[in-house]
Amino acid sequence: MTQPDNRPFAIRTYAPDQLREALKRMYLIRRFEEGAEDSYMRGLIHGTMHLSIGQEASAMASCMELTDDDKITSTHRGHGHCIAKGAEVGRMFAEFFGKETGYCHGRGGSMHIADVKTGNLGANGIVGGGLPIAVGAALSAKRLGKSDVTICFFGDGANNEGAFHEALNMASVWKLPVVFICENNGYGMSTSIARSTSVKHIADRAVAYSMPGVTVDGNDFSAVAEAVHHAVARARAGEGPSLVENLTYRWRGHSKSDRNRYRTKEEIEEWMTRDPIARFRAELIAHGVLDEASADAIEAAAIADMEAGIEFAKASPAPSISDVTRYVYAEN
Amino acid sequence: MNAMTDKPSSQPQNLRTLSYSEAIREAMAIAMEADPTVILMGEDIGVYGGAFQVTLDLVDRFGTDRVMDTPISELGGAGVAVGAALTGLKPIFEFQFSDFAMLAMEQIVNQAAKLRYMLGGEASVPVVFRLPAGSGTGAAAQHSQSIEAWFGHVPGLKVLQPATPEDAKGMLLAALADPDPVMIFEHKLLYKMKGHVPEGSYLTPVGKALVRREGTDVTIVAGSIMLHRALEAAEQLTKDGINAEVIDLRCIRPIDHETILASVRKTGKLMVVYEGVKAFGVGAEISAMVAESDAFDFLDAPILRLGAADAPVPYNPDLERASVPQVDSIEAAARRLTRREV
Ligand SMILES: Cc1ncc(C[n+]2csc(CCOP(=O)(O)OP(=O)(O)O)c2C)c(N)n1
Ligand SMILES: [Mg+2]
């Protein structure tokens, strides 16, 4: 009689190469965010940005079973989603530096980072803006007879926008292949869930739209991967949408102007002990997927990719001023 | 940006100065002290102090019952403010960025603006919407727009655009005293600008433009941050002996016809400078107003509009800068106009 496999979901489901690649991309997200923060301090990036440090498992584990034909819609806190979906960090940095080689040719910046070719339909400056768009992408897949799914990332704050409710309702009524992933980091800017939201868990909203809703530890790679795996399978099978809530935390302020007056240092430090990357790395080592040396090598490779990305971006040309109205309409 | 506030000659020394955002905060505090029905609503306006720190510390003074952090629900939040205004409260509702008013168009345009009329004058909606507007912060297409002219198209609304700290305070107090819905577009780049602000309560008249600089050769109408750019351009133009008259539009709806027409009759040339997209904007309204009036006979050159490029606001800082009027482009345009090269 075979023993039940008690190893974590990710370990028993994905090949070692996939797991190593996932760890690499999580390191890449972290280093990218740090590189972006540093570049901002040096004045290479203008505007503002929203860093996802601390939320890497949510982004990466949600994208494990996606191909380039599958779509995601992302948020203002979207750098991690973009990397998890397969973007190159050089072209991302180039976008942040406002260069023509950036994913949006320097027109969008951090808040609109996208990579349409790998299925990332874009970050969004409007909270909740991506939710109906994700439903539309799922409608396309269904009408065009494709098996693609759409993963719709949004924050806890977005669940109070009308667009959230309208989108979930339509996705359910039309049984569309979309997975709604709420990255619940406890706050919409300064406003906690308790002060803004009438349910304790965002996943509780699923009942109102007749779809499955689960809440998982968003800093546990395997827990997220398992929940999203079932939701993606359900979507591909034509059974309709699901809602997955990843409980996580942003280590940094909301944006570059946040003084953290609404949360305590203790709370931030407590969450930092639940580092999703350190946990995933330890899990991979514990189950023999990696040893310390190869994990270090993966981390070093991520740093090298990040640094090369910054160099690429710095060396890239800026858009021409005379092209200010280019891309407003299709070119003939 | 120079801290041009009023006609400089009329200003005694040692006047109290405040920043534009401090002036707005002072207006809110004065109103809240004087009238318990005044409440503040908006996203992160409490302990965070608002995205631009305009409401900073007001929650400590007035408590969370009167300084209400709303969920991220613009349509609902604005609608609650409309309903409260209809029934005895005086809400000041802050949109975190003016761009997000688009999520609340229904309540602003279909409800707030029309309720008094639809109900035959039996209802009043004394709500004030505050909207941080404009480009120049690198926040790209969905956080940098200048959509004030959109609301100029809506009967029932009043649309203000303070350019100075003094007006920022006086307009907010005037908006609160107004029985109808008022939208105040505050420019993000002006929040830190300092200028003289009188103590106590005073009302800046709604619907009155102001000649900020007298001149004889060309009339430049500009509001909000464009006023400061136009004044700077006007200074540059004096080097060539061009003496521009600069009018602070202040109010988009109702628009002050008389101040503009009187100036055009004097100078014979009109230029309108605004940050919104050039087409179908404030410039079109003002140009048509002049063309429809007797002042048309006084024009000795075509009217010139200077607005934003026909594109969303781009992220790249050089493109962003190039996409809206700047001191040098205003100056160059005024030069062409006075030389009749347009
Ligand atoms: C419609 C709209 N309202 C408000 C904002 C300003 N804003 C940007 S992000 C944010 C908080 C979003 O919270 P959440 O959805 O939980 O995402 P998180 O930032 O926590 O990742 C707010 C209020 C916006 N960009 N769009
Ligand atoms: Mg959040």
From TrEMBL, chain A:
Protein name: Acetoin:2,6-dichlorophenolindophenol oxidoreductase subunit alpha
Alphabetical keyword list: Oxidoreductase, Thiamine pyrophosphate
InterPro entries: DH_E1, PDH_E1_Alpha_Subunit, THDP-binding
Gene Ontology MF term list: pyruvate dehydrogenase (acetyl-transferring) activity
Cofactor(s) required, per the database record: thiamine diphosphate
Example GO BP: pyruvate decarboxylation to acetyl-CoA
Physiological role: The pyruvate dehydrogenase complex catalyzes the overall conversion of pyruvate to acetyl-CoA and CO(2). It contains multiple copies of three enzymatic components: pyruvate dehydrogenase (E1), dihydrolipoamide acetyltransferase (E2) and lipoamide dehydrogenase (E3).
Originating organism: Gemmobacter lanyuensis
Gene3D superfamilies: 3.40.50.970
Domain annotation Dehydrogenase E1 component: ranges: 25-321
Keyword Oxidoreductase: yes
Catalysed reaction, written as an equation: N(6)-[(R)-lipoyl]-L-lysyl-[protein] + pyruvate + H(+) = N(6)-[(R)-S(8)-acetyldihydrolipoyl]-L-lysyl-[protein] + CO2
UniProtKB/TrEMBL annotation, chain B:
Ranges in coiled-coil conformation: none
InterPro entries in UniProt: THDP-binding, Transketo_C/PFOR_II, Transketolase-like_Pyr-bd, Transketolase_C
Cofactor(s) this protein requires: thiamine diphosphate
GO MF, any single term: oxidoreductase activity
Keywords noted in UniProt: Oxidoreductase, Thiamine pyrophosphate
Sequence ranges assigned to domain Transketolase-like pyrimidine-binding in this UniProt record: 18-193
Oxidoreductase listed as a keyword: yes
Transmembrane portions of the chain: none
NCBIfam families to which the protein is assigned, alphabetical: PRK09212.1
UniProt name for this protein: TPP-dependent acetoin dehydrogenase complex, E1 protein subunit beta
This protein's encoding gene: pdhB2
